[in-house]
Design goal:
By secondary structure, the protein is mostly helical. It has one domain. It is built from 14 helices and no strands. Helix 2 packs antiparallel against helix 7 and helix 9 packs antiparallel against helix 13. The protein is globular. The model has no long low-confidence stretch (mean pLDDT about 85).
């Protein structure tokens, strides 16, 4: 049910993006991308790894779970108000147009609400009740689509679109807050001893996230400072599709994070290893055909979603999809590293990725525009994946089987032959290609029903 509703949410997100891109055009969507990239830098300071710390503390017996969440929620609210409050002031010193600076001020509340959504979602993750957050996301996306369609129909302009997005996040916060009382009472709390423990645990994760987001968002920010807003829009359109796809591994890990944490803290290594192997296989099952299929369908897909003005974004997407494949697995290994409290070690990997990424962006983007940004994103994500895999292997001493990876690659190769030979309407092509892949993976002895349902049968903690 959660996967089904998440698919609906993703489709609604794609529709919202398509309507917005068509209405704003290359330059307008570039302005939107610039606003979001700028604010996300401040949003990461508000995050500071507190969601993962909340899951850790609520899974342990050291503190009362409800008390832990209330203190972390308050801590994050204070961080969010401070860092996002200074963002519009700092934007005044950037060489942006007045329209972008006003847009940053309007959208600040949207990022704050988004930060609170992540915290409320922790409650549902710990109790393995993710249906409510997904349904709240669907309601928010419906509001977004309706608002954007209204704005486009009556030509309400750029600022109206930003207000609609803020309203979307506010509605999600309200829904999550109302239903959260069934599991945890959300109140403001300040236990200084607990805050010290929170800060002690969160700073390695927070620093990792800062370096991680630094190279993930630096591309759009450097583009906005060195190239035209139309070029930012072309890159932002492709990256928007990537962000939708990136949500898939985070959804899956969100469903299983409580199981990892419990089995690790209980020193149940056989069960922990089983979860890791099944997670690896499942992510490979999804990521492999996703990457291969996008290499064939990126251009017509971007035209269908965003319109003819963004056809070249399809070529950018062909490059960025390689980074998505790396992200699918690095999310798994990175989350496990956080669960086993080896965040400090992983921090060096994110520092290296940030240096490689930001340094590469500064060198390539002024000359090669979005092509340089796209390839440097791939290089950065692959370096993060390699580092995370090495730390995971060293600290857990788990040797993963690559048998299923081989099966997924063979099935994807058969799908690729089909895509090379079959030329038809994009939706029909995607459906038929998916059927070919599923048939091939079954033929090669793919996943069983037990494999697919393993994590979804876990009882609430």
């Amino acid at each position: 049910m959660q996967i089904f509703t998440r698919i609906i949410s993703v489709l609604l997100g794609v529709v919202a993006f398509g309507v917005m891109a068509r209405y704003l055009g290359q330059e307008g969507f570039g302005q939107f991308t610039t606003v979001m990239a700028f604010l996300n830098f401040f949003g990461i300071f508000a995050d500071f790894g507190l969601s993962l710390v909340a899951i850790q503390l609520m899974s342990e017996k050291k503190y009362d779970p409800e008390k832990s969440f209330q203190n972390i929620f308050t801590f994050r609210l204070v961080m969010g108000i401070f860092f996002l409050g200074i963002a519009p002031l700092i934007a005044l010193f950037f060489p942006y147009s007045l329209e972008i600076k006003i847009g940053i001020a309007i959208t600040t509340t949207s990022i704050l609400f988004s930060s609170l959504i992540q915290m409320y979602t922790v409650i549902y993750q710990v109790h393995l009740k993710m249906l409510v957050p997904v349904l709240a996301d669907i309601v928010g996306r419906v509001i977004t689509i309706g608002g954007i369609l209204y704005g486009a129909t009556f030509n309400k302009g750029f600022f109206f679109i930003l207000i609609v997005i803020s309203l979307n996040n506010l509605v999600q916060v309200l829904i999550l807050h109302i239903w959260s009382g069934r599991h945890t009472r959300v109140r403001l709390a300040c236990d200084w001893q607990l805050w010290k423990d929170i800060l002690k645990r969160s700073w390695p994760i927070g620093a990792s996230i800062i370096f991680n987001i630094a190279y993930m968002k630096a591309d759009s920010l450097i583009l906005s400072l060195t190239r035209s807003q139309a070029e930012v829009g072309m890159y932002g359109a492709a990256y928007n599709v990537v962000q939708v796809l990136m949500g898939l591994p985070f959804l899956f890990i969100g469903l299983t994070l409580g199981s990892y944490s419990t089995s690790w803290t209980q020193h149940d290594m056989p069960r922990f290893k089983k979860y890791v192997q099944k997670s690896f296989d499942f992510l490979v099952l999804v990521a492999t055909p996703l990457v291969v299929g996008t290499l064939f369908l990126a251009r017509p897909l971007m035209v269908m979603i965003a319109g003819p003005d963004f056809e070249q974004s399809g070529d950018i997407l062909k490059i960025l999809i390689l980074a998505v494949g790396a992200i699918f697995l690095s999310v798994l290994f990175g989350s496990i590293i956080n669960i086993i409290n080896k965040q400090k070690t992983m921090l060096w990997g994110y520092i290296a990725g940030a240096i490689i990424g930001v340094g590469g962006y500064l060198i390539t983007i002024p000359t090669y525009s979005y092509w340089g940004a796209a390839w440097m994103t791939v290089i950065s994500e692959c370096s993060i994946l390699l580092f995370a895999f090495l730390i995971f292997t060293k600290k857990t001493r788990i040797s993963l089987s690559l048998l299923f990876l081989g099966k997924a690659l063979c099935a994807s190769l058969i799908m690729a032959v089909f895509l090379f030979l079959f030329k038809g309407y994009i939706i029909l092509t995607i459906l038929l290609a998916t059927g070919v892949y599923i048939g091939a993976i079954i033929l090669f002895g793919g996943v069983s029903r037990e494999d697919i349902s393993l994590f979804f049968k876990q009882k609430s903690l």
